[in-house]
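Problem 12. The chain below contains 191 residues. Write out its predicted structure in C-alpha cell notation.
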Amino acid sequence: MSLRIYGNRQIKTLPTLDTRPTVARVREAVFNIWQGTITDCRWLDLCAGTGAMAAEALCRGAAEVIAIEKWNRACIIIEENLQQVAGEDQTFQVVQGDVVKRLKILAGQQFDRIYFDPPYASNLYQPVLEAIVNHQLLAPEGELAAEHSPNRLPVKAITDLEICRQKVYGNTALTFYRHISSDALPEVSHP
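Solution.
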C-alpha cells in the first residue's frame, strides 16, 4: 500500500492497521500552521507509524528528522520512506522502541518541531510530554503538536508547557504546546 505526501510523492504504508497514518487533511493543516518554520528545522516524530509526517517534513526542507516507532516492521518502512525523500544535505534517524524510554537517549538535543501521534486510547500522552520537558527536547521557540481524539484533552497541565492552539478536524484533534512565555509568568515583587 502507499500514501501520497507533499510534492505528490508516494511513500509506503503497512498493509495492516498496526499503524494509522495521519490523514492528508490533518497533515496539510499542521504544515500550514507551521508554514515558514520547517525549512532547516530539527523535527522529532514520536509514534511515527509509517513516517508520513517525518517524510513530509523532509520534503518541506527540515534539516534533520528523528522518528521513534515501537514496531520493527514500521521502522523498516519508515527508513525506506525517509531514504526516498531525504536530500543530500538532510539527515534522518529511525529509532525503534518504547517512546518514553527512547526519549532518554535524546536528552539535551533540542527540536524546533515535535509531532506526537500515539494510539488515541493509549496512556502515553502524559508521560511523553513530561519526558519532553524533563529531557529538554523542545527548543526555546519550538512547538509540539499532539494528535488525539477530539473527545478528550490528552493531558493534565504540564510544567513549563502551555497550550498555544487547538484544532479539530473531524475525528482528529490537534493540541499545540510551547514553552510558557515569560509574558505569562506572574510578576514577582521584591521589597
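Discussion. The beta strands are 2-5, 9-12, 42-46, 64-69, 91-96, 111-116, 138-148, 161-169, 172-179. Students who got a different answer should revisit the alignment rule from Section 12.3.
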